[in-house]
C-alpha cells in the first residue's frame, strides 16, 4: 500500500485511538478503576501505527511493558483492552495479565511483556516458525532503547541474522529508561549503529513522523517477507508522560516535555501533512475524533459493566485444561 | 522377548517417531547436527528431517527464547541445553516467558516446548557441569518436570512431552544414557502425573527420583536378605506429582524414604517428604527420611565425588532406620 | 522510647552505616541514583558517597557478573535487582559464579556480595513482577538467604549481609517497605542462622517467613480468643536455617504450621516442613501443615490476587486444624 | 618492556611450558591419572603468552574452560596445576576445581571458567575494583569465539565501555566452537568487528605470532592502564587438538590440522625470529626445553606423590569458615 489519503486517515485515526484510549485509562487509574502500573505510550503513536500499517493480520507482533499502542495498532479491541486494565473477566487476558501482558492471539499479537528485552528472541522464534512453514508471515518486535543493553538483544538478533529470518526489530528510542536519561547509561546515541555487529541493515528514523516510520518500516518488512532477513530500526521518539503513572519526572524538565508536545506531536504532524494535501477537512477531522471518542466511551462502559473474574479462575490457565497423555 | 536398547537410543527413537508423526516438531541446540549433541541423542535427525534441526551458537537465552516464540506460533520445538547447568543462562525465558505465557494471556497462548536437560554427575566435570535442580522447576507453575529413570520410561515420557501443549523440562541423567532396558517398538506414551510402582513391597516405601530408582531396586534386593520387603515408587514426573500413588503406598507400608541424587536441602525430595508428612501422618510409623547429596557444589576430585553422590548403602541404611 | 522508622528507612540506614564503616562497600543497580531505586532505599548515597554508587543500564547478568568480579577483587558490592523476577536474567552469575567460586577454587575466592531483591506481591504488577523464589536460592550451596520481617531485623541482617565474606540473597518484601517498627540507632548486627521467637506460646508453633510473621502474630492474637497460645518463630535466614530453634519449639508444642507467601509447592516451607517431620516425629501430635500461595502465577486482577496471597484467616484455620 | 632477547626467551620458554604441560596432562589422562575433561590449549600459546607478558603480577586475568595456558602464562605453578588435574589435595584448588576451574589468587588469576562467556563481566568487575581503588591494575579476560554470541559478552563489554574501565577483552578465535566450525553459527568472521557496537577500539591480530600479539596487547593494556578504557582484541588462532580429549574431530580434516601445526606453530614462529636475530643458539634452545621438561617431570612427580583430599573436605569451602556476625 503506498501513501494515500485513505492510508493516512487510517493511521491518523489509529493514533487518536491510542492517544484517547490511554488518556482515558489514565483518568480511570485516578478514579481507581484501572489498577497496577500504567506505562503510557502517548507521544510515540507514530511508531506503532507507522509500522503496523504495513502488517497483515497474520503477521506477528511482540511488545513491551509499554504496549497499548502496539496492540491497538495491530487491531486489538479497545473494549477488551480497557476491560483488561480494569481486571475484568472480559479483558483480552481475562483479567489475568493487565497492562503489561495484553495479548490478542487472534491477531497474532503475541503479547506485551513485563521483562525488558524479553520479546526479541520470541519474535525471532515466530519468524522461524513462519520460515519453516513457508507462510511468508513477518514478525515485528518492538522494544525500548533500554532493551538494547540486554543480552537478549544480542542473542535474539544474532539468531535472527544467522538464519536470515523474516523479522523486524524496532527500537523505540524515547531517550529514557525508567527514570534515567539514556545517555547516562549508554555509550552509543543511536541504537541502529549496533546493527553492524549483526551484519544486518540498521536505520534510524524520526519516530514522530508517521509517514517516515511507515516508509522505513515498509522497506524492512518487504525485505523480511521476501527472504532478505532482519532489519534493526531505531525510531527516535519521546514519551509525553512519565515512565508510569505517579512518576515525578525529576530527571527532565516540564519545558522539555512541553516542547516535544508542541513541536513533535505525531498526531499534529500527520494532520498538517493531510491538511496540506487536502486529505482531511476540519469536518472529517472532527468526525474521526468523535468516532474515536465514542469507541473509547464504549470501551469504558464495557469495562465498567463487565464482571470481575470468578475466584475459580485463579487456578485455570496454568496448564492446558485436558492435560492428557497420547 | 522385547529388544533391549539404551536410554539414549530410546530417547532418539522417541524423537524420530515424534518428528515423523508431526511436522511442526523440530530440534534446536548446540552441536545437535555435527555431533548429535554431547550424548548423540539428536543423531540422524539432520539426515532424516532436513530443515527441522537447527544448530545454534552459544546463546542459551536466545535459543530458549526463540523456542518460546516458535511454540507460540504453533511449532513444537525440542530444545537441547547441552548441560542442565547452562539453563541458568535462560531462566527468564523458562520462568517468566514459557511458563507464564498461558496464564498471563488468559489461556490464549500455548507454549508446547520441550527442554531437554542432561544433568547430574558425569565423568568428573565438577561444579558447573553436574547440577540437577529439579526443585527449581517444580516450584515454577506452568511448567512440567519429567524425570525418566529407565529407557522405556524415557521413550514414553519424551513422546508425551513433545505432545504436551505446555512446556516440559525433561531431565536426562547423564549416567543413565548408556543404561539398557527393554523398550517397546513403535507407539506408546506415558501420561504425566502417573507414578510407577517399580517394585511392590509391604514394609516400607522408597520414593526414588531418576537414577535413584535403579539404586533403590538394588537396595531392595539387599534388604530382602534382611527380611525386609520394600516398595519402590518412581514418580516419573515431579510436576505434576502423583501424590495419590505415593500416599497410597506410604499409608500401606507406614514408612517412607525419599531419595534423589540432588542435594536434599530444598530439593525435590523435600516437597515429597513434606507432602507425605502432611497427608499420611496418621499412618506413619517412623519419620520420613530424605536421602540426597550433601549441600555442597559438586567437587572435581574422584576422591571427593564418591562422598557426594548418594549410593545404595545410603538407601539401605535409611530404610533400616525407618523400619527399626 | 526507641524511635520508630520504616523497613525501607532501616535498610537505608544500614547501607549508609556500612558504607561509612568500610570504603570497599559500594552500590550498583538500575535507577539507584536518580530515584534511589524503586523503593528509594539507595537514596542519599550518591550525595554522601560520591563515586561509590553506579547506575547501570538494563543488564542484570552484566551487573551481577561485575559484582562477582569486583567482590573477588576485594570490594563489597551491594547490588540492587529492581524486582526479584529479574534475577532470572542473572542466574548463571548467582548460581554458577558467585555461589561456587569459593568451593571451585578450593577456598581461594571470596565473593562478599549482597544482592537485594524486592519481592512478593505489590500493587498488582502481575506474574512477572511479584515472585519470591526463596527456595531456589536455599537449594544453591554457597549462597545465604536472608528474609527480614521487621525494620529492626532488616537493619541488623543487612549489616551482617554486607560484612559476610560470602554472597547473600537479601529478600525485601515490597509490602514491607512502609511497615514501621522500633529500630536501634547505630551499630548492631544480627547473626545469620539464628531464628527469632517473635512470640512465645505453648500450644502450637507457627514458623513464618517474611511478611507471614506479622500475619502470624495477628493470627496468634485472634487464636488467643479461642484459648490457644501460639508460638511464632521467624527463621530470619532460610540458609543457613536455624533448625535447632525451630525443632526445640515444635518439640515443646507438638504442633507446627509453616507459612510463607510464596507458592508452597517445592517452596521454602517444604524444606522446613520436611525438616520438622524428620527431626520432631516423636513429638508431633498432628501433621505439619504448610501455608502458602496456590501453585499459580500471580494474576493481575485484584479480584483474583486476593485469593492468592495467604492471609490471617488461612493461618488461623491451619492452626485450628493442627490443634483440633 | 620493549622487544628484547630476554623477553623473547621468556616468552619462548613460557610457550614450551604450556605445550609440554598439556602434552603431559594428555598422557596422564590416557594413563588414568588425570580425570575429567581436558581442553587442550596447544597451538594457541602465543595468545596467552603474548598478552600476559605485558601484565604485572597484580593485574587480573580471567579465563575459560581452556585455560591451562592463561594460568601458566600468568605465572602459575605447574606442580600445583598438575596436582589439580589429578584431583589431589595439593592442587591449586585443593582438588575441588579441576581443569576447568584452575585459579591462583596469589597471582590475581581469578579463575578458569566452565561456563562460556562467564568471565567477561567479572573481569569488568575486577577492573571496576581497580578503578575505584585507583591502583591502575588492568584486568584481562580471555574467551573463545563462541562466547561472542552470548549475552554476557554484550552486557559485560557494554558496562566496561560505559565506565571506561581498565579491561582488555581478548577473544581467542580458533574458528571452532566445540564440534562446530564457527562460520556455521556466526555471521561475522571477525569478532573484533563487533567493537563498534560498544564504541571501543577493536583489533584483529595473528594469534600464531607471539610478537604481534605482544605488541597489540601492549597498546591495549597501556591504554587501559592509563584511563583510556577497554579494547576488544581478536586473536586468530587454532587449536592443535580436539575440543577436549576423545573428540573424533569429524568436523575438520587431519590435513587442516597438520597444515596449522607445520606452518603456524607459534613456538616455531618465535624460534625462527630469535634465530634470525641471533637471540637463540641451538644450545640455548635445548637448555630451555630441558629446563621445561624438568619442570614438567617435577610437576608429575609432585602430583603423583600428593595425597587425595580427605573426605571431610567435601563440606569445607562452601562458605567461609568462621561465618560470624559482626
Ligand atoms: C530485565 C528487566 N530489568 C528491569 C526492568 C524494570 N524496568 C521496566 S521498564 C524499564 C525501563 C525500560 O526502558 P526502555 O527499554 O527504554 O523502555 P521505555 O520504558 O523507555 O519505553 C525498566 C528498567 C524490567 N522490566 N526488566
Ligand atoms: C553457557 C555455555 N553453553 C555451552 C557450554 C558448552 N561448551 C563448552 S566449551 C564450548 C565451545 C566454546 O567455544 P569457544 O568459545 O569458541 O571456545 P574454544 O573451545 O574454541 O576455545 C561449549 C559449547 C558451556 N560451557 N557454557
Ligand atoms: Mg526508553
Ligand atoms: Mg573457539
Summarize the model shown.
The complex is a heterotetramer, with two copies of chain A (326 residues) and two copies of chain B (324 residues). Chain A is of the alpha/beta class.
Instruction: Tell me the strand percentage band of chain A.
Output: 5-15%
Q: Strand pairing plus helix content of chain A: what structural class?
A: alpha/beta
Which fold does the CATH topology of the largest domain in chain B refer to?
Rossmann fold
> How many strand elements of chain A?
7
Helix count from the secondary structure assignment of chain A: 10
Structural class category of chain B: alpha/beta
CATH level 4 superfamily of the largest domain in chain B: Thiamin diphosphate (ThDP)-binding fold, Pyr/PP domains
- Read across the widest sheet of chain A, the strand sequence of neighbours is 1-2-3-7-6
CATH class membership of chain A: Alpha Beta
Helix fraction of chain B by DSSP (H/I, runs of at least 4): 25-40%
Q: Could you say how many structural domains of chain A there are in total?
A: 1
Spans where pLDDT lies below 50 across 5 or more residues of chain B: none
Please count the helical segments of chain B. Answer: 12
Record field, number of beta strands of chain B: 14
CATH architectural group of the largest domain in chain B: 3-Layer(aba) Sandwich
Question: Radius of gyration of chain B, Cα only, in angstroms?
Answer: 19 Å
Q: Given the C-alpha coordinates, what overall shape of chain B results? A: globular
**What's the CATH class of the largest domain in chain B, please?**
Alpha Beta
- Largest sheet: spatial strand order of chain B: 3-2-4-5-7-6-12
Amino acid at each position: 500500500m503506498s501513501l494515500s489519503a485513505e492510508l493516512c486517515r487510517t493511521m491518523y485515526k489509529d493514533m487518536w485511538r491510542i492517544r484517547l484510549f490511554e488518556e482515558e485509562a489514565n483518568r480511570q487509574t485516578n478514579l481507581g478503576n484501572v489498577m497496577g502500573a500504567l506505562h503510557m505510550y502517548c507521544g510515540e503513536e507514530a511508531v506503532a501505527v507507522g509500522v503496523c500499517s504495513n502488517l497483515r493480520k497474520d503477521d506477528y507482533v511482540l511488545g513491551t511493558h509499554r504496549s497499548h499502542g502496539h496492540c491497538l495498532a495491530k487491531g486489538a479491541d479497545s473494549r477488551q483492552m480497557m476491560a483488561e486494565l480494569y481486571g475484568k473477566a472480559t479483558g483480552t487476558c481475562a483479567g489475568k495479565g493487565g497492562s503489561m501482558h495484553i495479548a490478542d492471539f487472534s491477531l497474532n499479537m503475541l503479547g506485551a511483556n513485563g521483562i525488558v528485552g524479553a520479546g526479541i528472541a520470541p519474535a525471532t522464534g515466530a519468524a522461524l516458525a513462519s520460515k519453516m512453514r513457508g507462510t511468508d508471515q513477518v514478525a515485528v518486535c518492538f522494544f525500548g532503547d533500554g532493551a538494547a543493553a540486554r543480552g537478549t538483544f544480542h542473542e535474539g538478533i544474532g539468531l535472527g541474522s544467522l538464519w536470515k529470518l523474516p523479522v523486524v526489530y524496532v527500537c523505540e528510542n524515547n531517550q529514557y529508561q525508567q527514570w534515567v536519561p539514556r545517555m547516562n547509561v549508554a555509550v552509543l546515541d543511536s541504537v541502529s549503529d549496533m546493527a553492524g555487529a549483526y551484519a544486518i541493515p540498521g536505520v534510524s528514523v524520526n519516530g514522530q513522523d508517521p509517514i517516515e516510520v511507515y516508509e522505513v518500516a515498509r522497506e524492512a518488512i518487504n525485505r523480511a517477507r521476501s527472504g532478505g532477513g532482519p532489519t534493526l530500526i531505531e525510531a527516535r521518539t519521546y514519551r509525553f508522560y512519565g515512565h508510569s503513572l505517579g512518576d515525578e519526572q525529576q530527571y527532565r524538565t516540564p519545558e522539555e516535555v512541553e516542547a516535544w508536545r508542541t513541536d513533535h506531536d505525531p498526531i499534529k504532524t500527520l494532520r498538517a501533512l493531510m491538511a496540506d494535501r487536502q486529505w482531511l477537512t476540519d469536518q472529517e477531522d472532527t468526525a474521526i475524533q468523535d468516532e474515536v471518542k465514542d469507541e473509547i466511551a464504549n470501551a469504558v462502559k464495557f469495562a465498567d459493566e463487565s464482571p470481575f473474574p470468578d475466584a475459580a479462575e485463579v487456578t485455570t490457565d496454568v496448564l492446558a485444561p485436558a492435560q492428557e497423555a497420547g | 522377548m522385547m529388544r533391549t536398547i539404551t536410554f539414549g537410543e530410546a530417547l532418539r527413537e522417541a524423537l524420530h517417531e515424534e518428528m515423523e508423526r508431526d511436522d511442526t516438531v523440530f530440534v534446536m541446540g548446540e552441536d545437535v547436527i555435527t555431533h548429535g549433541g554431547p550424548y548423540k541423542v539428536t543423531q540422524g535427525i539432520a539426515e532424516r528431517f532436513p530443515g527441522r534441526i537447527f544448530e545454534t551458537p552459544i546463546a542459551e537465552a536466545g535459543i530458549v527464547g526463540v523456542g518460546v516464540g516458535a511454540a507460540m506460533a504453533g511449532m513444537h520445538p525440542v530444545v537441547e541445553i547441552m548441560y542442565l547447568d547452562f539453563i541458568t543462562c535462560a531462566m527468564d525465558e523458562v520462568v517468566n516467558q514459557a511458563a507464564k505465557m498461558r496464564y498471563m494471556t488468559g489461556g490464549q497462548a500455548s507454549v508446547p516446548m520441550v527442554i531437554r536437560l542432561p544433568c547430574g554427575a558425569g565423568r568428573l566435570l565438577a561444579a558447573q557441569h553436574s547440577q540437577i535442580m529439579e526443585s527449581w522447576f517444580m516450584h515454577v507453575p506452568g511448567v512440567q518436570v519429567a524425570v525418566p529413570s529407565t529407557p522405556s520410561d524415557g521413550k514414553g515420557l519424551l513422546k508425551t512431552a513433545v505432545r504436551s501443549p505446555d512446556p516440559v523440562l525433561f531431565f536426562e541423567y547423564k549416567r543413565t544414557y548408556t543404561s539398557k532396558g527393554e523398550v517397546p517398538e513403535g507407539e506408546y506414551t506415558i501420561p504425566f502425573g502417573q507414578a510407577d510402582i517399580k517394585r511392590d513391597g509391604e514394609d516400607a516405601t522408597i520414593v526414588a527420583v531418576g537414577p535413584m530408582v535403579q539404586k533403590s531396586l538394588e537396595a531392595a534386593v539387599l534388604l530382602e536378605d534382611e527380611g525386609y520387603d520394600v516398595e519402590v515408587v518412581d514418580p516419573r514426573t515431579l510436576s505434576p506429582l502423583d501424590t495419590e500413588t505415593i500416599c497410597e503406598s506410604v499409608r500401606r507400608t507406614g514408612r517412607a524414604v525419599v531419595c534423589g541424587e540432588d542435594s536434599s536441602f530444598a530439593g525435590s525430595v523435600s516437597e515429597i517428604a513434606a507432602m507425605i508428612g502432611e497427608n499420611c501422618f496418621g499412618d506413619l510409623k517412623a519419620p520420613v527420611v530424605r536421602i540426597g547429596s550433601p549441600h555442597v557444589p559438586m567437587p572435581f576430585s574422584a576422591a571427593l565425588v564418591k562422598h557426594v553422590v548418594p549410593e545404595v548403602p545410603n538407601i539401605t541404611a535409611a530404610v533400616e532406620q525407618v523400619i527399626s
